[in-house]
Amino acid sequence: MARDNLIEIYTNLEKNGEIDTTQPPKQPILPTKPAPPIEKMDKAAQKSYEDQLEEYENIVQQSQEKIQIAKTNFQEGKSVFTDGFLSMLGLTQGGRTMCQFDKAWLWLPSFDRRL
Asked: What pairing do the DSSP bridges indicate for beta strands 2-3 and 6-11?
């Protein structure tokens, strides 16, 4: 939920975070870098490690690109949302996230907008 300069983050109906949009974006928390295989001669383990390392490096690169965009946007734009703001974001640190809007309600407040 976003109102003025605060964005409240909910998961499964529980509030688990709050972001003050007047503060600069923070570095994201990254997953742990994969550990190399103990047995260096195990080709299957080495291949699995290299695949995991490549995926990890892609995550780090994407995260750095996104945080740089967020920092630029923060410096250039207004960070207090008074004209309406609605968004849904799904994140996962592993696996796949699928959002399904089924049997959901959306409440929108009525605003008196006089021009």
From this structure: antiparallel
Within the chain, residue ranges assigned H as helices are 43-76
Q: Are 102 and 44 in contact (CB under 8 A)?
A: no
Rounded Cα gap, residues 93 and 59, in angstroms: 10
User: 55-109: per-residue pLDDT in tens?
Assistant: 999 999 998 998 888 888 888 876 666 665 555 666 666 777 666 666 555 555 5
Which residues lie closer than 8 Å to 39 by C-beta, 6 or more apart? 45
φ, ψ for residue 14, nearest 5 deg:
-110, 130
Q: How many C-beta atoms lie closer than 10 Å to residue 59's C-beta?
A: 15
